[in-house]
Amino acid sequence: MGNISQYLSNDHGTCDELYSSLENIVTKGDWEKTHKKAQVFFDAMEQHFALEEEILFPTLEDYTGMTMGPTAVMRMEHKQMRVLMKEMQEALAEKNKDTVLGSGETLLILIQQHNMKEENILYPMADDALSEEANEIVQRMDELRTKMS
Amino acid sequence: MSFNSAGLSLDQAPPQNIPFRFFLTAPIFGMAGFILMLWLGPSVFISRYHPGLIAITHMLTLGVITMTMVGALFQLMPVLAGSIIYQQKFLAPVIHIGLCLGTIGLAFGFFLFQETWLKWVSLVFLWGSLGTFIFISLIALFKAKSQHSTVRYMRLSLVSLAVTIVLGTFLELGHLNFMELYRPALTDLHLTWGFMGWIFLLILGVSLQVIPMFQVTPRYPDWLTKRYAPVFFLSLCALLLAVFNSLAFGREEFFASLYSALTGFLLLLIFLFMVATLWLQKKRKRGKRDILYWYGRLAFLVWFLGICTYFIDQNNSLWVHNDRRMIVVGIFMFWGVMAYINGMIYKIVPFLIWFNLQAKQMDAMMKGLETPKVPLMHEIIRQKYMWWQLSLFFSGCVLLVGAQFFTEAFYLGVLLLLLSYILLTQHIFGAERKSAYHTENILA
User: Among B21, B322, B354, B366, which residue's beta carbon has the most beta carbons within 10 A?
Assistant: First the structure.
């Protein structure tokens, strides 16, 4: 696994774990803790989107000269995730457990199949195409992450 | 290598109707299979060679299991391997119709027994449809840029399907009196390659991706993603060679013990996969246990029982004759596969519908149109109804195993199984109707 793959795949793992612990808390019905956990999860998601949308995708698009290719599909799926995250937030505000879990379940599956495409196809392509500047890209991602948190 | 020279795009998920035509047909074959079983009565289990039982078995293996797996592969190959399947919009419907007609022909060919022409026609349809499918899928998988473990498992599984069909054809030619009908050697080989090669290797390969992702577990260990597949496949090949050598050169006793040893080894490998999965699930981060989790557990439990039954001495007085032991093993193995597939369908169908509706909604939003809300997965098929289906399926299977010892359980068991498939059919068609309804709303 190349540097870029490694870095971003690890990030997927973190988001998965954050979601699972959020789901566990929602199931228990502890709304106090839920709101905090939910915020941590949503922030981690937005941070990951930013790493891709602001650093990885533009670099790849510059390299290939394609803006309507795979990166466009990934951006589109990020948008779909944001719609679900918004639905989840609304349901959280209403303390509607069924809708939180329902939209969460749909979000989780969307995330998983999206990650599958990125980890199996897009990241390896990026590792291949951007092997020379990989270290620098990872460094820029680290900087953006620090800036956001 | 340039970024786009591999001809890859991530927007290759096929149109919804490609996998759905297979998913919508599969439960109908399930209903048909159990109706046939009801009609023929408990006597179908008298022998594993009962023509009615062979007809029902093929309605379930080809009509339900293979039908669903072909549909799922059309969906998964582009997503997992990023490869384009040649002419899929044209070939998927053709393969679908060929598989339907071939399965019906094969089942009726056995059932009506004398109809030789039906057997020939069904062979042509099955070779045409599955042969084409194997061919285009293998091309897509070999060309795939991404050659991870699931892609390798899929390839071995498809090769196993080809071997299963060749062995099945030998058997059919035996029925047609073109060659000797080598029973039970060829029958055993045919179903071992079908079950362990085609079905199990695919289930395993897909699980490697799906279980860690949906249940948020650690990844499968390296021995399962790397060495396991070739060892498993070579053992299957050794099994084939053992049987052909024994048919050609005699020395039956030697090859028979080799055969049992290899089968035992393969069952042990399946057992190892189950242990690894249970171990991962024990370490899972996600507490929620959904329908797929329970269906998966159920599958493992009955596979375990099936493996144990296989190792019970065939001279045990419980069996009366060896056929009964093999039938019980068969029911357990089938039960597990159908449970696993049933669970997957309940996950995949609502997701694909939601995904496609959402994509249409986003499209409309980009054009600045107001759109109604899209139903979420749990609103497309209600969890509660899935539990009903699982309970009916589970009780039906318990009774069917019981019916091997107490015939009285037969009718109720098959009736429950039939009901579970009626429910499944209703759920999938209901989901499809919701999809059509919301699509219309969005477009309006």
Answer: B354
